[in-house]
Amino acid sequence: MTDEPNDGELKMVMAVVRPDKLGDVKQALAETGAPSLTVTNVSGRGSQPAKKGQWRGEEYTVDLHQKVKVECVVADIPAQDVVDAIADAAQTGEPGDGKIFVLPVESAKQVRTGKAGQDAV
Amino acid sequence: MTLELLGDFALQLSPGAVANGVNYVWILVVCFLIFFMQPGFALLESGQVRAKNVGNVLMKNMTDWTLGTLVFFVLGAAVSGLVAQLTAPGTAFDLMGAFGYMSSTGGAGWVDWFFGAVFAMTAATIVSGAVAGRMKFSAYVFVAVAMTAVIYPAVTGMTWGGGLLSGSGFIGDALNVGYLDFAGATVVHMVGGLAGLVGAKMVGPRAGRFDENGQSQPIPGHSMLLAVLGTLFLAFGWYGFNVGTQATVLAAGDGAVTFQGAALGRVVLNTTLGMGAGAVAAMLVSAGWQGKPDPLWAANGLLAGLVAVTGAVPHVTWWGGLILGGLAGALVLPTYRWVVDSLKIDDVCGVFAVHGSAGAIGTILIPVFAYQSGGVAILGDTWGFGGGTQLAMQVIGVAVIGLWTVVMTAVAFKVADVVFGLRVSETEEEAGLDETEHGVSVYPEFVAGGSREGPTVSTDGSGVSGGTQDD
User: Which ipTM did the prediction report?
Assistant: First the structure.
């Protein structure tokens, strides 16, 4: 146990959130000091109930909901701070707000400079 | 001085020449408007199919117009003339006369031909929406040629050309009334809608459209935006279709020309009221049926309303036009459900409900809502029943045109089936007609594209080819 944030390791915070909360999440990440992120449009299923779609009155079930996946790798900023910031920004209280995962990252390299490890992030 | 000059100028004008010139310019302008229905159909149909079949829809629409005009020039227009000759008493068979339009180097004969052509291509292009997503392109091209060479031209020959159903044809002459279909609610739209229904039946439903119990399964189209925009493009072109058929803008006589404002006004008003009532009725019916007002049904109802009044616009009172449009709009959803749930026919774009039945209903009911100069004044317009004979003529006309279209379309699809085969294979259908019939992707970025000069990676284990690589 050291005093370094993330025990000196790299962590990836991967969050799946509502698309219309992306702006708030980006703002919160910037305020936490972890502005770098990758965003992907994804669809998935969780606790949000299935929706009914219809075409010419014929119904079909939509149980995969549109979400955005935000990935943010941190070194100096504690992953827990990032998790809290995202959770705070993305919450509405309704089913379908999403989930946040924290994963260990084995290594990192910055393509432009060739810096590795903590310095790459 | 100036007045004197103007006076001299006026004296040199022949009212007949002025009226003729203005009328033909009007006809050309409305033809261009009617041509604009082609992008309307392209968008309407594209939006209602899946992304993998859009290129095929576009290809079919372009073929309908381009190949269709060529066929209509070398053959279709003559077939129309021949059918008119053969189905009217007292007209001599004149093969060269029927082809006379080809040598119309003086006068405006070629403008007249073009006026006919834009209507013919509208009829042809309706069919493609019904058979979308599974029909072989080659077979479709054959059917499109049959539509523009024979099936549609024969109908104009029987009606507008002065044949069978017109006042001078065998049936019209016997009953002493001519069949009323002003701009082609049946001649153009019912022909297209019925041909589409027959074609969709013969080609069979798309894979997955009905489950093992015969219950319909939805196959949503890829863009309601395109479908609704296409509808509005069509409505814009429709003003050319209906108002343009009122081809006489100026009438010449007695050293003066008179503007035909009353006739044009009735046509444009009934077109607009029919369109509006059709959309509103479909919106209400869809809200009742499905719980919420549905934009696609509203769009279909708008078109059904237009189809219903297309034959009736100069012949009916304004409230008659409104009722006809509303009736067709209200019926579009139940009619589509009947085609799918009872007939088990996969009419992808609902062309029977929008063009077929709406055209028949609107045209049959013309005498019921007939405008009569000096008739009973109701809501500012003068009404008079068009007569039982006229009503009978309308029913006979719809039956004759309908029977001809169903039989001939069935023959055309049968021949196409024998010669080309009607359907693509199951694998091709699943991959989509864009890739298998045309080798293209309309939305390449949906399907992760390869880089410009990069290597091609095979996922079957055979490795990487192309590009530079080290082993």
Answer: 0.72
Segment B35-63 mean pLDDT: 97
Distance between CA atoms of residues B123 and B147, nearest Å? 8
Q: Do A57 and B219 touch (CB under 8 A)?
A: no
Domains of chain B: 13-210+219-247+258-438 (1.10.3430.10)
Contacts of B350 in chain A (CB under 8 A): 56
List the 88-147 stretch of B: residues with Cβ below 8 A of A: none
Q: A58 and B333 in contact by Cβ < 8 A?
A: no
Please write the tens of the pLDDT for every residue from A88-116: 999 999 999 999 999 999 999 999 999 99
Average pLDDT of chain B to the nearest whole number: 93
Whole-number pLDDT of residue B445: 74
pLDDT at B5 over 60: no
What's the pLDDT at B466? Answer: 54
Question: What domains appear along chain A, each with residue ranges and CATH number?
Answer: 5-120 (3.30.70.120)
CA distance to partner chain A, nearest, from residue B346 (Å): 13
pLDDT for the residue numbered A6 = 83
Measured between CB atoms, does B294 come within 8 Å of chain A? yes
- B163-208 pLDDT, tens digit per residue, is 999 999 999 999 999 999 999 999 999 999 999 999 999 999 999 9
- Collapsing DSSP to helix, strand or coil, A27 comes out as helix
Residue scoring higher pLDDT (A120 or B320)? B320
